[in-house]
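=== RUN LOG ===
request id: a7f3
mode: sequence -> structure
chains: 1
length: 104
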Amino acid sequence: MTLPEQRIRLVAADPIKVGARRLLPSVLVNTLSLERPDQGVFHFVRLRPSSIVVEGEETAEWIEIPNATGNTLSTMAAAAAAIAVTCSLIMAVILIVKGPNRRR
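=== RESULT ===
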């Protein structure tokens, strides 16, 4: 069994000219590929905007684009897992206290 190959790279896009400023956007590219001789090739590519560099006449400023959706979904998944574990523990304690032979 072969493991999938994962590559993460930061790709800069073409600069955008806005008045006296120049914007340089960049994208985080996450590629997952698995090649199996009997089943073919599988590729999964995920793109996420990463940052923008704003170049003025004398200065350059790097602005990171936060991954708010991913952070929110991760928090929700962690909360759901904690609720599931807590409910399972409560049910186990009730079964232990009540006893296996007693019914309602």
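=== NOTES ===
The longest strand covers residues 21-36.
The two ends are 50 Å apart (CA to CA).
=== END ===
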